[in-house]
Amino acid sequence: MVNIGELKAKVCAVVDECESTGAICTPGAEDLVTRYERSDADARDRIRRLSGYSGCIAEKYGVDKSDILHLELAAVFHDVGMMTVPREFFNTPHSLTVYQYTVVKTHTTTGGTLLSGKAQESFRHIRESALFHHEAFDGTGYPIGLKGKQIPLFTRIISLVDTFDILTSQRPHKEPYPFDMASDIIFSEQKKYDPDVLSLFSENLDSLIKIKYDVEGSRGFADSKPVCELSERDKARLSNLNDSAKN
């Protein structure tokens, strides 16, 4: 049985630590994220990818640099409510049953609860992102059905980059998709996303790909092995990025 009070105290202490040190990938953050990722390595990589992707888009959007740390923390902890979901539900190689999906959906409201009761601005951003990251720009999301710019900006950014990260990463039920396929899937569901954020995603896709390689490549970007299958469009894009890295 999960003790929500103890878990809430743990989450708040870790967020406080990250904010006070200005660090994202702290041991405490890794410990929390590991509770709903497959391994310590998966947790570290996901923290770095999500903070990198969200920070990149936010900078291009014009978010003040002093607020970008808050956004990156919100990106890292937006799924913190998953700690109360049975691990076998999100590590299954099969599609979720209706019952399992109903339970998984509660991670949004649980995340909001775990991050409630703190007055700092950073906690407001993180709580909003935990609570609303499955809302959709067209109003078809959950748990409330917010629409358009009723959804906070940070959450609108995190929603898109989280989808991109899941699509291009290996999960228990799927292999990583090629970057251009992931992009095509996102654009096929473009009504779910803020058009301005979607445009910045498209314009800066090369930068997001480089972030993924920087995180997962063991020998630096230019020499990294592919981290997911590459299409012809991906190969051309990465060739251009490699040329830029050498110059």
What is the element layout, followed by pairings?
Elements: H1 4-21, H2 27-34, H3 40-61, H4 65-77, H5 87-90, H6 98-105, H7 107-114, H8 121-132, H9 153-167, H10 179-188, H11 195-203, H12 205-216, H13 232-246
3D architecture notes:
- The chain is mainly α and 247 residues long.
- The protein has one domain: Orthogonal Bundle (Hypothetical protein af1432), CATH 1.10.3210.10.
- The chain is 62% helix and 0% strand.
- It contains 13 helices and no strands.
- It has helices at 4-21, 27-34, 40-61, 65-77, 87-90, 98-105, 107-114, 121-132, 153-167, 179-188, 195-203, 205-216, 232-246.
- The N and C termini lie far apart (55 Å).
